[in-house]
Amino acid sequence: MPQTYRLDKNAIHCRWNRDLPPALTIDPGDTVIFETPEITRGQITRESTSEALKTLEFALIHQISGPVAIRGAEPGDTLVVEILDVKPKAWGYTFVLPGFNLLTDDPAFQEPFLMTWDLSEGTKAEFKPGIVVPLQPFCGVMGVAPGEPGEHNTVPPRRVGGNIDIRQLVAGSTLWLPIEAPGALFSCGDVHGNQGDGEVCGTGIEMESLVTLRFDLRKGENLPELRFQMSGRMTDAWNSAGWYCTTAHGPDLWQNTQQAIRYMIDWLKREHGLTDHEAFALCSVACDLKISEVVDAPNWIVTAAMPLGVFVG
Amino acid sequence: MPQTYRLDKNAIHCRWNRDLPPALTIDPGDTVIFETPEITRGQITRESTSEALKTLEFALIHQISGPVAIRGAEPGDTLVVEILDVKPKAWGYTFVLPGFNLLTDDPAFQEPFLMTWDLSEGTKAEFKPGIVVPLQPFCGVMGVAPGEPGEHNTVPPRRVGGNIDIRQLVAGSTLWLPIEAPGALFSCGDVHGNQGDGEVCGTGIEMESLVTLRFDLRKGENLPELRFQMSGRMTDAWNSAGWYCTTAHGPDLWQNTQQAIRYMIDWLKREHGLTDHEAFALCSVACDLKISEVVDAPNWIVTAAMPLGVFVG
């Protein structure tokens, strides 16, 4: 008989480590409701200003919920994670931290920036008057312990997941993770109320959340890297009003991505009166990033696509 | 009074060159119906087999329609291209040419592969029994002459457009091109009945077409690189049945893109019984490519997303 467990917000850790004791052990088929914490361990509150970023202890990021051990899970198996529900809390924040974003060398982004969001309406949130972002909450971090012993930083994504920031992993999607450590040792957190592809300014709408996931095992599948399935439309909530798109061409997809975002920032400043930081933040919480062209050497194209549905004023 | 012109399929050229005589000269506000040719100058016909690729004269690619001069267009102006209609013809083809695709070094793709499509139904086309792709036709090539004198190959995309392969540029979208040469000298062609992001196997559904575009000018805007606006949903035609997604992580977006496509090919072979070449071709005509993660050094994530709506069997 499948069980439902609740993991409270004290069951947290801050590094991946296959030798951490499980906060909970479950059977395949069981469901867990995670009270996921805010990622900085309370260094940012609803009353914080940009000043808080100047003393931010980055080593405390990410605070995540878990680990959950799954009985019978062995290296080579696949952990099936059904995303049943991700509930936004009452408020969130977005920051631009110099040195941790897509445009670290740009003069416009050498100062810290912090904004907070009122999320109490539950389905959408005002960025500033005239600009509204729908809420499409998902876990920025979902993953299992790497097989290699020792502590592993939570920032870079890995084949076993972690800080993957795949904004399509909303309720209704299913994630498949390759297992490297006995018991799998799943953790999650860093929930974003919304985020654009790539989370370009370094943060989405960061918030606490209540996350409900159901787990299962597929034995001996030897999945090479995580994959997932979405049900329904890719970007349903803001898909109907059209998109404004900038493009950047060149031989390096990374530099093209930077340049396409710079063009989008320019447009948001000129057409919608945003500041550099506001524009970067809106890209990070709302903008799609597509690889449009990748075979016609020497130039590839990256497209940044802003859903026009966010402009309601 | 705005005019409508028709440019027949003999008005073609094969290189960008600011000194080509215009096939047509129009005023801002005018509309042109282009009879766009197949890109290889007839080297591939409906009866061709993979053998035709072994002697393909690549230097004849791309055959494109134009150039069209716009009165009053000067360097620094923006050419506004409204995409009014793109009509598919009765058949098309997709090929994998060794050395010209995203996976040029992979052992599976060292032999040429050619398939043809029956497009006569007009709204969708059968890939093979059980797999149907909706038609969302757009011009793979739209651009104006580069400012630098001389001949320029049509293969790489440039800031003034060209072989941009942006699959969202369907009817209803508007493209803005920076102008570098007096008169702008616009050309188009390489129409794809459908294509996935990145056209990964090197071709979409290649076909002749009837393309209707309306032109306008914005003076002295100094647009740094082409951009565009889409009306309506990004991927409406096949968005409702869900998506199967592979991901690849690592420090190089280009290698991640290759790897995500390799994973998708593996899945299409195992789950849907496709051959390597069929799977590569289906990715090239149907698969989305998203940059999911680009700030959490040292690893970025590229996601390849296959719309499940194509599997009808």
Total count of domains of chain A: 2
Strand order of the largest sheet of chain A: 1-4-15-6-13-16
Quaternary organisation of the protein chains: homodimer
The most extensive interface, with participating residues per chain, is: A-B, 68 and 67 residues
The major beta sheet of chain A can be summarized as: 6 strands, mixed
Mean pLDDT of chain A: 90
Number of helices of chain A: 3
CATH fold topology of the largest domain in chain A: Jelly Rolls
Please give the alpha-carbon distance between the first and last residues of chain A: 52 Å
Which percent bin holds the helix content of chain A? 10-25%
Spans of chain A of at least 5 consecutive residues whose pLDDT stays below 50 are none
Global shape of chain A: globular
H/E series of chain A: EEEEHEEEEEEEEEEEEEHHEE
CATH architecture of the largest domain in chain A: Sandwich
Q: Mind telling me the C-alpha Rg of chain A? A: 19 Å
Structural class by secondary-structure content of chain A:
mainly beta
CATH top level assignment of the largest domain in chain A: Mainly Beta
Number of strands of chain A: 19
Provide the β-strand percentage band of chain A: 35-45%
CATH superfamily of the largest domain in chain A: Acetamidase/Formamidase-like domains
